[in-house]
Amino acid sequence: MTFPDIPRAIRAAIVVVDPDTATPQRAIVMQFNPDSLERSIQPQAAGGTADASGSGTDGDRNEALRLKGPAEEQWKFTAEIDSTDQLDVAAPDGIHPQLAALEMLLQPTTAQLRESIEATRRGVIEVNPIETPLTLFTWGNKRIMPVRLTEFSVNEQAFDVNLNPIRASLSIGMKILTVSDLPFGHPGADLYLAHLAMKEQLAARGSRIGG
């Protein structure tokens, strides 16, 4: 029996995007939405901090209300993966594929590593750092932002007879990438501006805080 009037749950996801064409390449959808999110926001203040007496220099006072750029924002959450919750889906490798998809967000590919090694062998003086795909984190339709994973730890909690992990808890940390982090004209910079514009629209509606 189906209930068409009940809205379908929206899943959080990490979307991998080609940095040159802004074309989505694949989406890593959370099996279960995290129960909580921890967010920290640090402003990029132009002025210095006051000394122990509470006073500062004239320069600090002149810069007290100025910002050098967008605030630095960090997100942390815990996600769960459980292949036993999907008994109708064949999982000969357990949850290895899901874990590998997330881990590869932090790793260069073998092709990129071979290319870098070959460039070094040819005597290239300066080898450019390896560029990874643009990564977006989506949490509903009001939070779509470019991110870089800064933390990823796995607690594997159950295994099948072949020692494939079948259940795990993931701790994921990410930094929101802003226009200060990305090159001029990068698709991620436009996506960040769209994310910030959504915050501005929501802020305009939030005229009251608390009860």
Automatic annotation (TrEMBL):
It comes from the Bacteria. Residues 45-55 have a biased composition (Low complexity). Residues 42-63 are annotated as: Disordered. InterPro entries: CIS_tube_prot_N (IPR045361). Pfam families: CIS_tube (PF19266). Residues 21-174 form the Contractile injection system tube protein N-terminal domain. This is Contractile injection system tube protein N-terminal domain-containing protein. It comes from Actinoplanes hulinensis.
